[in-house]
Specification:
Strand content: over 45%
Number of strands: 11
Structural class: alpha+beta
CATH architecture of the largest domain: Beta Barrel
Number of helices: 2
CATH topology of the largest domain: Lipocalin
Strand order of the largest sheet: 1-3-4-5-6-7-8-11
Low-confidence stretches: 4-29
Largest sheet: 8 strands, antiparallel, barrel
Helix content: 10-25%
Distance between the termini: 55 Å
CATH superfamily of the largest domain: Lipid/polyisoprenoid-binding, YceI-like
Length: about 190
Amino acid sequence: MNKTCTMTTPLLSAFSLTMILFYCSSVAYSQVTSWEITEDYTIEFSGTKAEGTFRGLSGIILFDPDDLDASKFDVELEVNTISTGNKTKDKHARGESWFYAEKFPKIHFTSNKITSLQVGYEAVGDMEIRGVKKEVILAFSFFDEGKQGMFEGELKVNREDYGIEGNLFEFVVGDEFAVTIQLTADK
């Protein structure tokens, strides 16, 4: 019997250590502040001969400036909400040659790593548009206002990376677009 006890003791110790590590990591992860996206946000894009806004933002924001390793963005927006200020352009942008909203109704961003910069932060992650996933860098600032937080950021998106055509009626739009985001979130 002593042999059995001796053999199971290391197994029990390994199991106990695994459970303690799992518990500690889940407790640390759960302490990262979860932010709820409010309706008080703007998402604007601008490039040569095309600019506008998006709405329909939803998702998960876990962010703590003191725990960037556990922080994460996993957000999406509805393509059908695009607004250029021109209904004909909006319809074209939702069509097959641009966003193809019928087949790909969402634009999705998931951060893979968030780091601190001298001023602000940087989220490196995957942007998925039209079923194509590419790595992008979102530079952003965060302002903690007690029960609310303000996120302001900008990223560059090359339309060609996602198979978006350059013709918009008789105009040829630029390849690169600046996307700016300002949002308020509640704890």
